[in-house]
Amino acid sequence: MAENDTHLLNVEGIHKRFGGQDVLKGISVKAKRGDVISILGSSGSGKSTFLRCINYLEYPDQGRVVVDGEEILTKTGKGGMLVPADQKQLARLRARIGFVFQSFNLWPHLNVLENIIEAPMQVLKLSKKDAIERAETLLDRVGLADHRNHYPSHLSGGQQQRAAIARTLAMEPDVILFDEPTSALDPELVNEVLNVIGSLAEEGRTMLIVTHEMGFAREVSNQTMFLHEGKVEEQGSPDKMFNNADSERVRTFMASHIH
Amino acid sequence: MNWQAITDMLPLLAEGAGLTLQLLFLSGFLGLCLAVPVAIARLSKTWWINILPRTYVFLFRGTPLLVQLFLIYYGLGQFEAVRESIFWIVLKEAYWCAVITFTLHTGAYISEILRGAIQTVPVGEVEAARAVGMSHRQVYTRILLPRAFRIALPAYGNEIILMLKASALASTITLLDITGMARTVYAKNYLPMESFLTAGAFYLVLTYGLTLFIRYLEHRLHADRKEPVVIIG
Ligand SMILES: Nc1ncnc2c1ncn2[C@@H]1O[C@H](COP(=O)(O)OP(=O)(O)O)[C@@H](O)[C@H]1O
Ligand SMILES: [Mg+2]
Fold first, then answer.
1. Half-sphere CA count of A228, side-chain side, radius 13 A
2. Pairing mode, if any, of strands A97-100 and A82-84?
3. Which ligand 1 atom is at minimum distance from the Cα of A19?
4. Phi, psi at A194, each rounded to 5°
5. What does residue A52 show for φ and ψ, rounded to 5 degrees?
6. ipTM of model
7. What Cα–Cα distance (Å) separates residue A197 from each residue in A102, A188, A192, A194, B124?
């Protein structure tokens, strides 16, 4: 698959139907190492569903996902949906795709440190000592070193999201998918999270970010795509997207989202 | 009230309390062990996986414990095949019949409690586990079950307390638990009030003790509800 060699993530023609409704109508994205791709679009346009199809939290009806040259193996399941053909392979590839949720989804019975070392120990089979070492570096990095023994319920939303990012980073993923990482946060907590994500962009991480933070998207991404009703309305450089998009719809959206 | 009679029966009832607690803890523990796979299988969408646990829960929740006890203690012995099998070593003992019946009975209830608790775990927590590459088994052992146990603990505690009182039925198959002892005492002293009042007091004390123990467990397991430990330096 020489054509994919330069792409760390290659997602092709994702279709997804919920009930009778076509939510995704053939969406593709390719990311090279270091690409930061912002995915924009109004609520209900299919952004979350698209991200979730990439790591098979949602099973697409059509399309394929290739991670660093390895395609997620699928077979056709009930109702024509693509289902994973090899759970072991899927788990292995998922471990290489980080996912940061809008609602953080930390494990509430584990404290911050335990949340971070859980997957490296269970999935990557790191020793506890190595996992803790890795976690401590990350805790410093996201500014939670003093909160390592706190349980998620005792943290602010911003702290929880930073812990969740550290949990994802602990797997040393090749690609990280962010689904509106700051949408559930009080306005004054948004920046502490954006700063962490911004610093990841700076160090050359490959990321797909669904966000409504237009200023941030423009600053950190080198590509943008705009979804509308399950289709790519427009795709291109942030400059073009934010300043003179071809699509009237995108221009209207931008006008109402940039203050 | 004949206080002397009450004092005299205390050692016997204490002995009975020992048996009551043995039956309770054994069946409470074995019931929990049984309930875990039953709850997981019941959650399966595949009909031939969930049909067996579904039927089991239906039967054991839908019939009185006393009937179950009689069926296993008296009923099974009716079959020669059972009497000649190696299971007879166990099934001819009233004690083991009580343990088996209580286990099956409480296991059905606990499995329903667990099933509900597993379904209560927010789906996002499970998705987070899948997203980091955990296998089905790891999702269960590391996230779903630990979470479900915590959620289920108050209801499980309640079930244990109900079982404590239901265990009095053991006395109907000759066992000398608290109620069994009270009945023998009463057969000798003809003092029903004293005998059964004392038995009732024993149950009250045990219930209270269990309540405290469960509360302690809840406190221990719900570290996330306690104030965080602040590490300085
Ligand atoms: N699990 C689901 N079942 C049914 N419909 C869904 C489900 N998830 C999303 N949808 C529908 O798919 C569409 C796209 O949703 P979503 O991907 O969440 O959009 P966005 O993230 O862009 O707001 C919406 O119309 C939503 O109602
Ligand atoms: Mg969304």
1. 11
2. unpaired
3. 4
4. -60, -35
5. -70, -25
6. 0.94
7. 14, 16, 9, 5, 21
Task: State the Cα–Cα distance between residues B141 and A151, nearest whole angstrom.
Answer: 20
Percentage helix, strand, coil, to 5, in chain A?
40, 25, 35
Q: Where along chain A do its domains lie?
A: 34-51+86-224+231-257
Nearest Cα neighbor of A136 from A164, A170, A165, A94 is A170
CA of A40 to the centre of ligand 1 (A): 15
pLDDT of residue A4: 44
Cβ distance A105 to B124 less than 8 Å, yes or no, reads yes
pTM equals 0.91
pLDDT tens digits, one per residue of A187-207: 999 999 999 999 999 999 999
- Give the fold, CATH level 3, of A34-51+86-224+231-257: Rossmann fold (3.40.50)
Per residue in B40-84, pLDDT (tens digit) is 999 999 999 999 999 999 999 999 999 999 999 999 989 999 899
Using one digit for the tens of pLDDT, what is the confidence trace for A98-150?
A: 999 999 999 999 999 999 999 999 999 999 999 999 999 999 999 999 999 99
Tokens for B98? 């009580």
The topology under which CATH files domain B3-221 is: MetI-like fold (1.10.3720)
> What residues are in contact with ligand 1 under a 6 Å CB criterion?
A 18, 23, 41, 43-49
B81 CB burial (10 A radius; 0-12, 13-18, 19+): exposed
Contact yes or no for A234/A225 (Cβ under 8 A): yes
Handedness of CA A64, A65, A69, A71 (dihedral sign): negative
Percent of chain A residues topping a pLDDT of 70: 98
pLDDT of residue B232: 41
Cβ neighbors of A116 (< 8 A, separation 6 or more) are: A131, A134, A135, A138, A139, A163, A166, A167, A170
Q: Whose CA is nearest to atom 14 of ligand 1?
A: A46
